[in-house]
Write the structure tokens for this entry.
Amino acid sequence: MTVIYNREDKIFRGVVTGGALTSLIVLGLIGVFLFMRGAQIFGDKGIQFITGTNWTAGSGDGVIPDDFSIGAMLVGTIVVSLIALVIAVPLAIGGALYLEFYAPRRIRRTLVTLLDLAASIPSLIFGLWGIEIFTGFGERWAVLINNWLGFIPIFSVEFDNFGRSPFIAGCVLGSLIIPITTSVAREVYSRTPRDLVDTCYALGGNKWGALRAVVIPYGKSGVIGGAMLGLGRALGETVAVYLLLNLVFRYNFRILESEGGNVASLIATKFGEATEYELNALVAAGFVLFLLTLVVNMTATTIVQRSTPRA
Amino acid sequence: MSTTMSSETAATVEPQTPWSTPRAIRIRTTSVVALSAAFAVVVVLFTGVAGIDGWAITFMGLSIVVVLARTSRAGSKERKDALMRVIITSAAVTAFAPWLSIFGSVILKGYLGIRPNFFSQDMRTTTPDDFLEFGGALHAIVGSLLMVLIASAITLPLGILSGVYLTEVRGRLTFLVRFVVQSMSGVPSIVAGLFIYTTWVTATESFSAFAGALALAVLMLPTVARTAEEVLKLVPEDLRAAGYALGARQWRTAFMVVIPTVRSGLTTAAILGVARVIGETAPLLLTSLSNSALRFHPFDGPIASLPTYVFGYLQIGTEYAIARAWTGSLVLLAIVFVLFTLARRFGGKDKR
């Protein structure tokens, strides 16, 4: 079908296309500007910028040279996000299955509303809750884990100080991404073809049989996509991690130790007191974070779009 | 029902619900659950397991044991079904616990500071350690509203245009635009802050409400664009066809038929966008900073906002400062809640 547009319509289509492309332009500009500002650092440090662990502001007179690299923070980012994911994904799947298939109709509507609301609780409030309320519980669990599983290297500690650890930050980040992961998973599960589920029942299957044979396999890629959206959010989380972790610049894989940090909280911490050169280093760190989350999110988007033919 | 009764009043028939659980079984289930819960309390009181979390874990463990015991004579299929029911319910309770706890603690700890002065004074002449009768968050509320308004004014038209492109124009770039919008929603908020810092703040050499609003706009755009698209998709094809049949051009149909039809849906898009960014802290730390005085000027120097207010007082860490942070959080949460209720109300209107 060929459609012929007159001049008015061409203008309309041009304007609308322009408006729609702003997001593309903004996304591009973010990349370009951050890269330009950070280029100096990338030139100076090369690959060392993402593998080294030091973050030392020089004395200015050259006696102590500037030395900025984000290796430790990148590892911290990944460790904390993985903990969050390990906690959040099973719980979110359970929550979604419960809401879709087990919850009594009356409390289901309330819970779904609350879930939507929970997905937009600012991360700042999660941070506040994390230090004021959750840390008490988290420390106790950490001690228990350390007592029983301390022989496994990642659960060992150097100092018996269990607060402000990647484990606690990971738990809070896990709670932070549960709502979004749950609601994506629920969305996908609710699209399971009803006749397939009914077929299961008709063949004499019970609820778990139907879930295992139909619903869970059907929703698999959607849940993976939802988990990756959550991962993207956890990777870029700033204030909650800032409030919950001591920034220590060294590789730390012991998740109960009270040291860690992530790239985003590094930026927030050092921003206020940074020299011009350090600021460039922070922007460079932001660029790395931007690329990391962009890759994760694009993968997630592709998976979700493929799994939901309608969207 | 006795036969004598039914012969006298033959017309009354009790409604039967054979599919629902019989009363006896319901009572038995409830009592088993109550007993396990009580036993878990005993465990918490007399063993090393402590706290509400310890109780919950004991209770869940007990439930699994009870289920296994009760289905010991059933087939493995029934056993698995009953077991998974308990496990999935436990997972759901654990998943919902954190945010229920957040709602609860924010309300309980925040309401202490809810006083008239919290909404009518700024913190210019109040130190963080002053009693809660003095000072307030007026400056922060005003700052937040100012920034959110500017951000909405920027993103709403762009978001609607993007939605119109995806549903009306449907050009060659549809897939790309949708993909980019989706990916953009994952840009970390601190990166948005850094972006505005390296561009606007560096260029104008001043932190300002406008810079903060720009950063918020970057974060808000994907939400608004996506919701606008969803809403515009709901417009029936017939309406467009009717527009064209009346001789209207595409732009007229779009602006005079399609968009007015979903006016309240687009309001929802804006509201959801605002709800998305009202609590963003990280970008504001790099663009608008904070301030203890009431200000209105969007281009002139640092300005307060609710998130940075909460963040700042939390950092100070004294008793009253933290109380102020909780109250600030309560106000923030209340705003999000109101926005959501509004969004639901507007969202419901179009569907009818």
Remarks:
- Residues 1-6 of chain B have pLDDT under 50 and may be disordered.
